[in-house]
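Researcher: Good morning. I'm working through a list of sequences from a screen, and I'd like to move beyond sequence-only analysis. For each chain I'm collecting a predicted structure so we can compare shapes side by side. This is the next one on the list. No need for commentary yet; just the structure.
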Amino acid sequence: MLIIPVKEGENIERALKRYKKKYNKTKVVRELRARQQFTKPSVLNREQLKKATYIQKKYNSPDS
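Model: Good morning. Structure tokens for this chain:
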């Protein structure tokens, strides 16, 4: 359960923005979408390897 303490005199939009940011950090929506369909562990591993190689290429490129 998320608890967002609202300070006295604080704008409700600002508190809502803090709530949304905190909610996104919990990754609830991402997990729900992932649970809608089953992906095989081998496919997950392949995606992780692909992502890792992309990140390595990005940070080890001679351009940066």
